[in-house]
Amino acid sequence: MRYTRREFGLMTVSGLTLSGLAVPARAVADTIVSGVRVGVQSYSFRELPRTPGGDATAAIIKAMTETGLTETELWAPQVEPVSSAGRGASAEERQKAREALRRWRLETPLDHFRGIRKQFASAGLSIAAYNYSPDATYTDEEIDRGFEITEALGAGFITSSTTLAVAKRIVPFAAKHKTTVAMHNHSNTSDPNEFATPESFAAALKMSPYFKINLDIGHFTAANYDAVAYLREHHTYVTNLHLKDRKKNQGDNVAWGQGDTPIAQVLQLLKKEKWPVRTYIEYEHKGEAGAVAEVRTCFDYVKRALA
Question: Are 157 and 239 in contact, with CB atoms under 8 Å apart?
Answer without folding.
Answer: yes
